Amino acid sequence: MSPRILVVVPTYNERDNIAPLIAELLALPYELDVWVADDGSPDGTADAVREAMATHPGRVGLVEGPHKRGRGAAVIDSFRRGLADPRRYELLFEMDADFSHHPREIPKFVEKLRECDMVIGSRYVPGGGTSEWGLARPILSAVANVYVQLVAGVPIRDTTSGYRGYRRAVLEETEFDRIKISGYVVHGEMAYQAWVHGFRLGEVPIHFKNRARDASKLSLEEVYMAVLNFALLRFRYGFRPRRRPVA
């Protein structure tokens, strides 16, 4: 039997993209539900999600924040609710809403999750890549990932990727209250927690196509906090992964 899957999609001003994305996700051959974590989008994204909820009753959900929380906080809120849901989701995913992360990649994750506990969609493994990214962003992304590897030691090439799947057990052991930051760099801290808790991490190749409109810009304060936070991960959580009992 196929696992029960929850896909969490954080959004801010994604009205044009969200309905087509939901339709493609629900067309996949899995027992799969989609929850949209909307951060108070002024463009009516939440209204588009409600229309999808009416079209697909029971399979689409909306998790609205009272204010703009940041991507990481929105996803964490949704994961916590997903773990408490009586449907007992076995696999939980996070992905972008704008088709820079494509639903057709989901089967690769599901297959890899048979042998791994957490799987990241990677731009930096054979078969992965990017397009329409300009000059600066690839350099910044590569530097960020090398930095995380050096200071934290996580054996993943693309710890900053926001396309990822988890087995339920990983999120059940994630210490959400200890996560210090709320933006995109939450990805690195969650990967470190999974690794230090002894879970098996893996990557599958994805092609990341840059969004058609401008992406949110990281502030200098966010960059500073990310650099500091990653440098302290080993001191906060431990230096080596613990051994887990063999299943």
In short:
It is built from 8 helices and 9 strands.
Set out the fold topology:
Elements lengths: L3 E8 L3 H12 L4 E8 L6 H11 L4 E5 L6 H14 L6 E4 L11 H7 L5 E5 L6 E3 L4 H17 L11 E4 H6 L12 H11 L4 E5 L1 E3 L10 H18 L10
Parallel strand pairs: 1-2, 1-4, 2-3, 5-8, 6-9
Antiparallel strand pairs: 4-7, 5-7
Helix pairs in contact: 1-2, 5-8, 7-8
The Cα radius of gyration reads: 17 Å
Strand content: 15-25%
For the record, what CATH class applies?
A: Alpha Beta
Secondary-structure element order, as H and E? EHEHEHEHEEHEHHEEH
CATH homologous superfamily classification: Spore Coat Polysaccharide Biosynthesis Protein SpsA, Chain A
Specify the number of helices.
Answer: 8
At CATH's second level, what is the architecture?
Alpha-Beta Complex
CATH topology: Spore Coat Polysaccharide Biosynthesis Protein SpsA, Chain A
| Terminal residue distance | 20 Å
How many β strands by DSSP? 9
Global morphology = globular
Largest β-sheet summary: 7 strands, mixed
Question: Your description of this structure?
Answer:
With 247 residues, the protein is of the alpha/beta class. The chain has a single domain, classed as Spore Coat Polysaccharide Biosynthesis Protein SpsA, Chain A (Alpha-Beta Complex), CATH 3.90.550. Helices cover 39% and strands 18% of the residues. It has a seven-stranded mixed sheet with strand order 3-2-1-4-7-5-8, sandwiched between helices. It has a two-stranded parallel ribbon with strand order 6-9. Strand 2, helix 2 and strand 3 (60-64) form a beta-alpha-beta unit. Helix 5 (136-152) packs parallel to helix 8 (220-237). The longest helix is centred in the last third of the chain and has 18 residues, at 220-237.
